[in-house]
């Protein structure tokens, strides 16, 4: 016996029955979209890392080169400062002193560090060092070891400027600090004991960009000469941050954009920056002092540094350009890379340029 059949009405989805709704719920759509976006972002990131790996030689790679921390806000800026601001040790045989130079605007004083060995010739040249850090990080104290070693090796007076940082102090705060120190140096030539005709400015990264702008300003002023400029992977052109996003080691496109926006005090690409804010934006370069520019082949600043060197040469300025193949930004500062051929060649060329500028014979 088959039994009786009970008639049933056709099943119709109730408008409140979400399990029967053919359109996914908004929460499901959002989750799917987020998952898709994350997958796409991860794929793009892996693609960029793969391209970077194929560009940088294996012996010049570190975890940081493939997975850099972009500096994009106050939190990461604080992290950068904690990483770059720790004082290093002054090497033995070098006297280190701290001076406080009044600012032109009356807002406190600039901390200036001097380094010299005991037997320094009082007629030596002076090396003015401007530290790097993307305009938003770094300190003069972090360079104690490197600058005291230069004072020992070069037999020159080495001076480091602890200039103000962005975004708290945008342009022209840092440049004015550096300029005030140049004036202070020339006003105290006898007290400090150096040859005013051999004032060499040296900087890395943002410090290199500041050094280039300072050289332009001092040249136009015509009162306190700088004889040479030595620029290691200098940060010269804000327009690099406006170009298509790329993947680079250590100093990234995002970090560069934040650094320039912080320094220039607003969004990029709006009008022409003020004079001496962006070195590469200057049209006339004739008459500037001789330059040495060094940059890695995988550095974000490679194109802008090469272009600036070519512009200097076209203007009749003596300029030596050194490109270290396969080297990323600040690769010469990585201790593990010190004995590689690329870093040795880069460092030897830079040190030779410093000796030549200070009129110090090679060892």
Helices and strands in order:
Elements (H helix, E strand, L loop, with lengths): L25 H30 L7 H4 L7 H11 L9 E9 L6 E9 L8 E5 L13 H11 L2 E6 L10 H15 L1 H4 L6 E6 L1 H16 L6 E5 L20 H12 L25 E7 L5 H13 L4 E6 L16 H18 L5
Parallel strand pairs: 3-4, 3-5, 5-6, 6-7, 7-8
Antiparallel strand pairs: 1-2, 2-4
The gist of it:
The protein is of the alpha/beta class and 363 residues long. The chain is built from ten helices and eight strands.
Describe this entry's structure for a reader.
This protein has 2 domains: 32 residues; 285 residues, Alpha/Beta hydrolase fold, catalytic domain (Rossmann fold, 3-Layer(aba) Sandwich), CATH 3.40.50.1820. With 363 residues, it is of the alpha/beta class. The N terminus is likely disordered. Strand 7, helix 9 and strand 8 form a beta-alpha-beta unit. An 8-stranded mixed β-sheet has the order 1-2-4-3-5-6-7-8, sandwiched between helices. The longest helix has 30 residues. It starts with 25 loop residues before the first helix and ends in a 5-residue tail after the last helix. It has 10 helices and 8 strands.
Main attributes?
disordered N terminus; 363 residues; alpha/beta; 2 domains; single chain; globular; Rossmann fold
Major sheet attributes: 8 strands, mixed
Number of helices: 10
CATH fold field value of the largest domain:
Rossmann fold
Structural class by sheet pairing and helices: alpha/beta
CATH architecture term of the largest domain: 3-Layer(aba) Sandwich
Mean pLDDT reading: 87
Order of helices and strands: HHHEEEHEHHEHEHEHEH
How many distinct beta strands?
8
Helix content: 25-40%
Strand order of the largest sheet: 1-2-4-3-5-6-7-8
> Which percent band covers the strand fraction?
5-15%
CATH superfamily of the largest domain: Alpha/Beta hydrolase fold, catalytic domain
Amino-to-carboxy terminus distance: 112 Å
Give Rg in angstroms: 27 Å
The backbone outline, from C-alpha atoms, is: globular
Uncertain ranges: 1-26, 37-43
Return the CATH class of the largest domain.
Alpha Beta
- How many domains would you count in the coordinates? 2
